[in-house]
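User: Hello, can you help with two protein structures?

Assistant: Certainly.
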Amino acid sequence: MTNNNNILDVLTYMFDYLFEVAEEEVNEIDDITLKARLSDAGFEVTRIDKALSWLENIATLQDGNIQLSGHSNGGMRIYSDDEKSKLNAKSRGFLLFMENIGQVDANQREMIIDQVMSLNDATLSLDDLKWVVMMVLGNSNDQEISPQWLESIMSPDDNYTVQ
């Protein structure tokens, strides 16, 4: 694996590795071992550090220690031009769908958007957005998320388009 410039690539590989380790019933992975594994896989140290920092930011947001700029309690979400350029209509539709079915509340939606905007990618695919949603919801203290539900949101290309 070479030239892994995408933080989500690092996170995806890391979660696959952590799930693999969990199946082997290893109790704990320290940061040094995790970073070494990611480095051995060909990820740059700076990308690894950014990915871990990105995850720490989710935990901080969950703890309520950071105030989100777009935070709202329900109502209509108006996306900025920068947000629209990073999240296409299908991705925005997916977030609206998740909120309408009660799987994402307004605060979690804002956390997801904040995390998306912190990624270096110019645009984000719907599949990448689904990974971000899974990571934010998977780290949520608010509710129990079933593994089956998390897998279901990764289903191939559903039609969620908004204007």
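That covers the first. Now for the second protein you mentioned:
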Amino acid sequence: MSSTSPQVRDGWQGRFYEDFEVADIYRHPLGRTVSETDNTWFTLLSMNTNQAHFNAQVGAGSEFGRPIVVSTLTLAIAIGQSVIDVTQNAFANLGLDDVKFSNPVFAGDTLWSESIVLEKRESGSRPAAGIVTIRTRTLNQDGAVVCSFVRTFYVHKQGAARAADLFPEAAEPLTVEAR
């Protein structure tokens, strides 16, 4: 085995204000299958006592014939899916508007989200940041829209001190020879 000098390659650092362009669409790469356990835990964590979300007998008697996933879990997953593409370098959400739940989500459904940039502007009070507004929609595995919303957030500009990479320097370098 030859000795090779390792080259450090930065991982994905997310988008900064300058990277956003109005009308750009980001298809977020990670789908998420919602389990019955996810739904039960989220109803417990959020103290949602509507039995349509966790009682099979109540769900069976509903118009859906089974329990539905709590809508705020669907929203949380959708926002989470978008972070890798739109808010990795954000430091504050400013608004969440026009939230819609178009179709029910059930345990076993796989959710996918995509976002379109609606607008962007410089911040008047924070010169190292800008404000971006996106619309996100979430689809199930059949392509049906289950959730959509508009979100506005502050995002760092490139080179902003508070957006600096905080990865620590190792005491010993990582080498090809180390096993």
